[in-house]
Structures are given as C-alpha cells and as structure tokens.
Amino acid sequence: MKTETIRSVFENALKNERHDKNSETRFWCGQFKLLAKLAIEQLEQQDTVATGIEAQVCEDIAKRQQLGLAKYGMSVADNPAIFSAWLQHAYEECLDQAVYLKKAIELHDQAL
Q1: Of 1, 82, 89, which is closest to residue 40 (Cα–Cα)?
Q2: Would you list the domain boundaries of the chain?
Q3: In a 10 Å sphere around its CB, with 0-12 CB exposed, 13-18 middle and 19+ buried, how is residue 1 labelled?
Q4: Which of 7, 45, 64, 102 ranks highest by number of CB atoms within 10 Å?
Q5: CA terminus-to-terminus distance, the chain
Q6: What is the pLDDT of residues 7-55, one digit of tens each?
C-alpha cells in the first residue's frame, strides 16, 4: 500500500472519529488511526533509505557517532556547548580538512 493511500484512509478515520457518537466506533477509529500513523512513518522511512555512496556516508556517520559517544559520553544533540563553540569547532575541522586536502594534492602531483 502506498503512503498516499494510507494517509487518505488515516484522514477518513480521523473524520469519522470526530463525527461518530458511538464510543466503540470512536475507539476503533482511534486504534486504526494509530496503526495508520505508524504505517505511514514506516513507509516514509523506507522511502528515505539511502543507497550507494550515500548509504556508505550514512554508515560512516553512524560509526563516528559511536566513536563520539565512547570518547565524550554524549551525542552532539546532548552536548550543551554554546553556539560560538560549535562554530569554532566547525572552523577548526575545516582547517584540518584543508591540510588533508593539500597533502592529498601533493601526493597526487608527485605520483604524476
């Protein structure tokens, strides 16, 4: 079943739940609404699964997160650092990246 179809059924259940006075019908509409919402979330996650190089990047991010959790004991989301500290950290990472790129360029040029 496509996400749009489930979403349509979900909206109909929501409409029926609001207008129906029978408590049992309202209960089952509510239950169906919950199941439809879960199905939509699962389908949307399936629709956004990365493949190819993008999947490899996602795997690398997950590995880096695990390293960070082991090293710092918290995720980036849980880190209470202030905004300027994040900017400084990103700037320093960019400087490191520039150094790595320059070295790679030199190695490439030497190989030619």
Answers
A1: 1
A2: 3-47, 80-112
A3: exposed
A4: 7
A5: 55
A6: 676 666 666 656 666 676 667 667 777 777 777 777 777 667 788 999 9
* CA pair distance 82, 17, nearest whole angstrom: 45
Per residue in 87-106, is it b (16+ CB within 10 Å) or e — as a string?
Answer: eeeeeeeeeeeeeeeeeeee
Q: What contacts 55, CB < 8 A, 6 or more positions away?
A: 49
Token pair belonging to 108: 């490439």
Query: In which residue are the tokens 């650092």 written?
Result: 81
Question: Helix crossing, 3-19 with 23-47: angle to 10°?
Answer: 160
* Token duo for residue 3: 């996400």
The structure tokens listed for 96 are: 């490191």
